[in-house]
Amino acid sequence: MVGSTTPHAPFGRMLTAMVTPMHADGSVDYDGAARLATYLVEEQRNDGLIISGTTGESPTTDDDEKDRLLRAVLEAVGDRASIVAGVGTNDTRCSIERAKAAEAAGAHGVLAVAPYYNKPPQEGIIRHFTAIADASGLPMMLYDIPGRTGVPIASESLVRLAEHPRIVANKDAKDDLGASTWVMARTDLPYYCGSDMLNLPQLSIGASGFVSVVGHIVGADLHDMIDAFFDGDVVRALAIHRRLTPVYTGLFRTQGVITTKAVLNMFGLPGGVVRTPLADASVELQALLREDLAAAGVKGPIGLAPHQAVPASAVGVERLTEGSA
Question: Known catalytic residue: 119?
């Protein structure tokens, strides 16, 4: 129903845009990706994972790597979580081919970002997304993040795109709650918050759930916040939101892939290096991240040197604050 206050969640409510683990030489760690995906689903309670999104370093992984990575994650957790493949580029033909490849690999859906750098008009954006949605039988999530792409998906365009039967959701990182409210009131297009600091505010205006970066570290807490909100316990949801604020702030001190991989490495989880033009977290940044985690009551084996691994059984991320999950 248009404007419904009980939002549908086609891919589940809690999703993480997963990093692509890499070895020290910069090659993709496919076994590590399977282990990380398992951790995110089993320990961090993710309902779904985005593979080869921006946080997965999609600009610097090639098509073969994307395909193999997707298949590794599907094999590991595809029967327990929604696996959504990032296929968006600024070339419609390329995005179409990636959508077809994702469908062939067995993905449960695709994510397509607004075309970046080209600065197309809204009619071009609509044609771009429509062509991708028409190219496969998979449900598609749009990704609206004008801070990265240079162009927004206009509210009127979102209303038009919502009419497509395979465009089933929007990852909203426009950071404009008024515009999001306007679209939600006029369509039944499910919204997923794509800006972690706005997770709870987005729920309050009708979002279905999250596509998170900090979900790598505190996904279970975010799932608790969603559950509390939809159970009507807004006080508890707000308490979780406020407690996690240092994590939201810390993991976006610089580009989110850099900080996320740094924390995963601290915890002995698969992360590894980033590919240029990104640069691995400095010792100074790692120290700040430790302070951020401590301020939010999150601790793990964070005294490890970068990229030093520990057995998965030794990770056991703990919470310092009473009542957190």
Answer: no
